[in-house]
Amino acid sequence: MSTPTLTRTVPNAEPAERAAAALQIALPVGVGLLAPLLDPSAAAYAGAGFLAGATFTGANYMNRLGRWASQLPGIDIARAHRDTLGISTITTGMSLALGQLGGADASEALMAGFLDPVTVPGILSLGWWAAVGFTGWRLRRVFGHHTVTVQGQAAPAVSGPANGGAPAPVSLADKMIAAWGRVISDPKTGRHRNQVLSDVVIYPDRWEGRITAALGDSVNVSKESVSSLFGRSVDHINLKFGTHSGEALITVWYTQRAELDPSTLEGAWKRVRARILPKTHLEEVGADVNTGGQVARVVADDDLDALPRVVNLGELAGALRRSIDLVSYEPGRRDPRRAIIRVMDHNPLEAGHDFPGLDSLIATPGGWVNIGKIASGFPARIQLFDPKLGALHVVIAGTTGSGKGGTAQMISLAYHANRMAQIYGDPKGASNPAIPKMAAYSGLTNLGAFGAMRLSWWVLQHRIEEAARLELKNFVPTAMRPYCATILDEAAQMLAPGAPNRKEAVKIVKDGASLTRSLGMPWVLINQTVNLDQLGSEQAIRANLLAGGTWIILRTDSDQVNLGDLPPGFEGLDPSLIPAVWAEEDDSLVYDPTVEESDPRRTFGLGYVAAPGGRAGMMRIDNLEDGTEHIRPENLTAPVDVPWWGDEAYMEELAQTPIPGFEEKDGEGGTGEAGTSFPGIDLPKPRERTSEEKVLAALRDESDPLYVSMLDEGDEITSDDIDYVERGQLLAASGVLESTFANVLNKLEKKGQIHRVKDGKASKVALGCRPDETGDEAP
């Protein structure tokens, strides 16, 4: 028997969609006719209803309804007609406003004004009717019909109105509903009786529908039954209750959903939600053109008020099956329920960004400068100063090879670009050759770095006294009174336990961290870790550094054992997990001599920056090997507001003299070591010579014996007879601590036992009083 072919004419749209289209066309006209007839109470309700409808239509037009709207009946129609709904809402609003405010005359002008098109009401009426007509023209397809061909098994098998049966299925949705009725919801033989499928909408990648149970029953259709009927995997079927238990919404996907693909961000988020960030979901998932990966917003579920403050980045990267340098997590700056997650195929920071030039470091009016970029492509910014708060501190941490020196150089260049004076201390020596060239004073090696710290402290004392005397409240920089930053490299060599003169160093840094912001004197502390004991074990130092500026943390080593010392914004981050080199794609299990191995490339300058108001996230400092070529002589600045600045001899004395309260005691209060001892025998301890005696003895030993003899005999001494010893030579020979030596020389000179002269930049010392014929004063 041949299969008959039936041709039928069917509507283009379902009745509900046709009714919605008709309402969009008729509503503006109907409202225009009825609005003048409404009493005040009805007019108020009509206005409120219109505002609610207009708000919904506007949100629908901009696709801002949110996930909750998917539960609304007819939402698919609203979304499909968002353009015409918007036009109809505008024309309806015009009808309602003119009818209520202007009465019947205004409504009549709107409806019939087009008869007199040269007037203003006529033009308005023409525009209104054009919008109403355009809405109908756009919706013409909804009211049309089309012809379909249906093949059946035999003519008698086709039921229809003629034989009292239901119309045969003519569309794919109808066929699916019919199949559902035979297998699942049939009242007698169905797997889930009386659980009817309706409102089927077919999309390119899925179809959606509504399941309704009999009155009083709950929907209990199983995914397995749907899977068997339509031949789709259970994982591709999603069922959830609607507005009540007797209603469920079903979605069946044709292709694998992104949230089920473990190689996608949505798929991997199942692991993240189960182990790292429970009660969260992703929104606005999309491609990230900067990284070739994906970016999304992490949003807390309705039963979670805020995302956790601490997110372990290492565990998050593991759950996403990425290395830590290919994952970026940025907490929301204002909304505690939102964050930004990036999963990268390649890190855009790997190629680096060349330093664009000194002008790129000129600060904004608020003191912000760009020192690099973060993975999202936004600039990595730090704030050098704040117009109200004053100068802001910087802390840089990172192990050798992490880019700590390059970051310090970038900060120094930023100070230089903005004509800020710099005092630089480096216990290692000239490890960064460009910074001393920009500094007003450089102290290299341990003794030199300590001198730089002391000079910074004395500049602070001058500005404190000046501010009190002149009643200065906020620091306003000028060419004669500029910002003056103190940069201390390898801070642990001065502040860690066991460092020489540690108490004095801690006092200087503590005063600098807590007192200098309002006096234009920021501090830059550079160290391998940020453990509290490496910063002087002073909570006051850490608290003021936290409140007063930026922390830049690069890759650190295992010495960063106390993650609790990390500042806010770094919770959950283990700096030692930052890889030393970028991941290679060509790693092989078996060595092949014919394949050239690539050299590892270090993650120089890769780390994290936390600045109040700045974007959080993984960042990299701009590439710059040596900043010397960018130094501008006209930008070199010194704190010339200090009266003694520029007097090299006096500055050297200050650099070599302990600050008040830390002078070493002499005489009986000295700190000499105990004498020789043997087990069981107590020998008398020899009296330890005082520091003054040590210096005098060393000076006699280093001087010409003939000159010493003339002094002992009381012979007449002329300037030609005097034998001078260089200060550094005498310091080494005496064995007296540097912190004590300067005070000892002052005391001996006041007693007339020695005198000093200046030879160029060096200072020389000689026994005895200065002969009158020299006419010089000791420096």
**Distance N terminus to C terminus?**
125 Å
The CATH architecture designation of the largest domain is 3-Layer(aba) Sandwich
> Residue-averaged pLDDT, rounded?
78
CATH class of the largest domain: Alpha Beta
Radius of gyration: 42 Å
Largest sheet: 10 strands, mixed
Share of β-strand residues: 15-25%
Number of strands: 25
Describe the structure.
- By secondary structure, the chain is of the alpha+beta class.
- It has 5 domains: 5-143, no CATH class; 171-253, Alpha-Beta Plaits; 258-343, no CATH class; 382-582 and 600-638, 3-Layer(aba) Sandwich (Rossmann fold); 687-774, Winged helix-like DNA-binding domain superfamily/Winged helix DNA-binding domain (Arc Repressor Mutant, subunit A, Orthogonal Bundle).
- Helix content is 33%, strand content 18%.
- The protein contains 20 helices and 25 strands.
- The protein has a 10-stranded mixed β-sheet.
- Strand 7 and strand 8 (293-300) form a beta hairpin.
- Helix 2 (40-61) runs antiparallel to helix 4 and helix 14 packs parallel to helix 15.
- The chain is elongated and about 135 Å long.
Descriptive keywords:
alpha+beta, 10-stranded mixed beta sheet, 33% helix, 20 helices, Alpha-Beta Plaits, disordered N terminus, single chain, disordered C terminus, 5 domains, 18% strand, 25 strands, 779 residues, 4-stranded antiparallel beta sheet
Describe what is shown at a glance.
The chain has 779 residues and is α+β, with helices and mostly antiparallel strands.
Outline the secondary-structure elements:
Layout: E1 5-11, H1 15-34, H2 40-61, H3 75-80, H4 82-112, H5 120-138, E2 145-151, H6 172-183, E3 196-202, E4 206-212, H7 223-230, E5 237-241, E6 247-253, H8 265-275, E7 280-288, E8 293-300, H9 313-319, E9 327-331, E10 338-343, E11 368-374, E12 379-383, E13 385-386, E14 390-391, E15 393-397, H10 404-417, E16 421-426, H11 434-438, E17 441-444, H12 445-470, E18 484-488, H13 492-495, H14 502-515, E19 523-527, H15 539-547, E20 549-554, E21 606-610, E22 618-621, H16 648-656, H17 691-702, H18 705-713, E23 725-726, H19 727-734, H20 738-750, E24 754-759, E25 762-767
Parallel strand pairs: 15-19, 15-20, 16-17, 16-18, 18-19
Antiparallel strand pairs: 1-2, 3-4, 4-6, 5-6, 7-8, 8-10, 9-10, 11-12, 11-22, 13-14, 20-21, 21-22, 23-25, 24-25
